[in-house]
Write a structure and sequence with these properties.
- By secondary structure, the protein is mainly α.
- 61% of the residues lie in helices and 0% in strands.
- It is elongated.
Amino acid sequence: MNDENDKSASQPKTSRDERLKSALRENLKRRKLQARERAAGGDPSPNDDGSLNEGATGEAGN
């Protein structure tokens, strides 16, 4: 009797595991693509304006 319950309980878990594996695989592909684009010199981020000494007021440091 326990064997029947174990089989029915493992099926949804397997389905869930497969969905999670698929989602993780897609996430990894997306992150690798983003990393390649960044390494290739894609669009700079909004904070990447080249000023290293910018203060809290947005003015260049002296």
